[in-house]
Amino acid sequence: MSELETLKADIKKLSAKATQAKMDLHDLSEELPLNWRSIMAVAQRAHEAFAELEKKREDLKAQERA
After folding, report:
1. Which residue windows are coiled coil (predicted)?
2. DSSP letter string over 13-49?
3. How far does CA 28 lie from the centroid of its chain?
4. Does the reported pTM lie above 0.85?
5. What is the pLDDT of residues 43-66, one digit of tens each?
6. CB 7, CB 56: distance < 8 Å
7. Is 53 exposed, middle or buried (0-12, 13-18, 19+ CB in 10 A)?
8. Cα(7)–Cα(65) distance, integer angstroms
9. Given this model, what pLDDT does residue 1 score?
10. Considering its fold, how many domains does the chain have in total?
């Protein structure tokens, strides 16, 4: 598998991970005030997932330009 194909596969996996993190955050918001103590942990996971996805997308754009 080429580096470009590997990057696209990584993005697909990260996109699914980020979507799940978003849904977890949404579900938590609907349950409030229950489980309010987990807000920071759930939000941190969502933040990290989207940051990683954004980085990989930038890497893909750079690869495609090269």
Report:
1. 4-66
2. HHHHHHHHHHHHHHHHHHHTTTTGGGHHHHHHHHHHH
3. 17
4. yes
5. 999 999 999 999 999 999 999 998
6. yes
7. buried
8. 14
9. 78
10. 1
- Computed from CA positions of residues 7, 9, 15, 20, in that sequence, does the dihedral angle turn out positive or negative? negative
- CA-CA-CA-CA dihedral for 23, 20, 33, 37, to nearest 10: -160
Query: Can you give the residue range of the structural domain that contains 22?
Result: 3-60
Residue 18 located in a structural domain: yes
Long-range pairs for 22-28: beta carbons < 8 A, 24 or more residues apart: 22/46, 22/50
| Within-domain flag for 41 | yes
Lowest mean pLDDT among 12-16, 31-35, 38-42, 62-66: 62-66
